[in-house]
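I am writing to request your help with a piece of structural work I have in hand. The matter concerns a single protein, recorded as an amino acid sequence and a row of backbone structure tokens. Could you please explain, in whatever detail you think fit, how the structure tokens follow from the sequence? Thank you for your consideration; the sequence and its tokens are set out here:
>
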Amino acid sequence: MTFVTQDKAALSLKPNTPKQAMGQRHTQHIKALDGLRGVAILMVLTHHFIPYHPTHSVIGKLLNGIAGIGYSGVDLFFVLSGFLITGILFDAKQDEHYFRTFYARRTLRIFPLYYLMTFLCLVIIPRLNILQDAVPSGGGWWWWFYVSNFHYAFKHNLSEGWLNPFWSLAVEEHFYLLWPTVIYLLNRKKAILFSVACIIIATLSRAAFIAYGNHTAPYVLTPCRIDALASGALVALLARGPISLNHYLPRIKVLCLVTGAIGFAIALWRHGIVWDSIMQLTGFPLVAAFYACLLIIVCIPGPGDSRVIRKAFENTLLTSFGKYSYGIYVFHSAVHSLVMRVPFLTWKLSAAHFTHLSDILNFLTLTAVSFAVAYASWHLFERHFLKLKRFFTYVPRKQAMASKVSQ
């Protein structure tokens, strides 16, 4: 999931300027990116909170379809993460303590909440001998070292209690560990080629596992999911070229429509099943391409329909969910487990034709509670760690050297 704040990141989708080349950054906060992040977390919640029911009703089929393609909220998180991380790293290449600053800031954002939940599920709850569905079967050291996705890939079982969604955090962490070196060592053109190579490698990796008969690995392993992250990185690198992406906006809109229509048609055809080989080979790359194009359309200031689309992603509801998306993602499995135990918080209307209404009401309840828990987590816990980021700011080498000389 992308939980990258936009501070100190060059988010302008305009060609490089002399000022930027001299180390000054464009630090405009793009509010619509928070909205995109909000869409991503809401899609994940629909996928996990709305159960599948065999049905012939229009409403039932619609709910099944929405919940089915909700898995791709993770892909949108990956694309956003690739875009934001690459932008931060590329613009910080000339900074003093490039690696230290990046890793320190990522650690302060990601680790506290991740390890709080891991400690709770692996140490506290087992000792209290309660809520056994919260505890992963057999425990496991892989949670402590962000390799749970490898555990999933070869165990063929994604039922791991409250830590079930953490496989995607492992994928992101692997990206955070390796990508700073890639961007540091390569110039822009070579980094673009490397990103394209990652997209190709991901497709080939998925095909290899499918041929081997493993349909879990193509969904959870980092080499198999790097294409979504690389797609976002590609957008960030192209945006820093000599030609503005505004020039290509009409073609990007067409590509967005085509990839989106085909990608989501495949997802609906295959019922959004992420273990399906057709979905993994064709649906995954098309959905990633769609989100990359949508990212450009949302971020580029433009007239007409582009402005309308951008405004749609700037509404308060979506941006609020985007702001607290990390906490929502970390806690939502626990919320689902606990809330569904409380009769007065859940809806189970007796009449058969009210099943879908019950699902919608439960979804709204679970989503509201998840948001409330994440809101409390942010203000009571996370933000105190984020305040420490002030000790790890990006400083251009020339500016740092001048400061030392003046002392």
Observations:
- Residues 32 and 311 are 7 Å apart (CA to CA).
